[in-house]
Specification:
- There is one protein chain.
- The protein is of the alpha+beta class.
- Helices cover about 40% and strands about 25% of the residues.
- Strand 2 and strand 3 form a beta hairpin.
Length: about 120
């Protein structure tokens, strides 16, 4: 068999017959702590937040200003529901800054009109 025929046969095999096992091939390389971290992330992503009592805008802004001045973490619950009627996930982090209409938390912008409640983390 010549080199040209061999190359043609090999190319044909990889183009038509070879089946890549994809992720299955690499599953043995994952460490148990990495696997458990992936599971925790999936659970957190699919968790439905419990509705907190609606707070006034003034109370929310006071907590946010205090947290910003003292570098404290806050959790903001938005009054926005997904297609299933569940609230969108809460946003937790440091207050990065304010604008006239909202607040920046972890580089996410949340308008004041969408805020349902603010809780200071301890």
């Amino acid at each position: 068999m010549s080199d040209a025929e061999f190359s043609k046969m090999i190319n044909n095999y990889f183009q038509n017959d070879y089946r890549e096992r994809g992720k299955v091939k690499w599953n043995g390389y994952f460490l148990s702590d990495h696997t458990s971290a992936l599971k925790r992330e999936a659970q957190a992503k699919n968790a439905v937040p419990v509705k907190l009592p609606m707070m006034s805008l003034t109370a929310c802004q006071n907590i946010l200003r205090h947290a910003s001045a003292n570098y404290e973490f806050v959790t903001i619950q938005q009054n926005i529901e997904d297609t299933d009627g569940n609230l969108v996930p809460n946003v937790t982090g440091l207050v990065d800054g304010f604008s006239d209409l909202g607040v920046y938390i972890n580089e996410s912008y949340i308008t004041f009109e969408n805020i349902r409640a603010v809780v200071k983390e301890e």
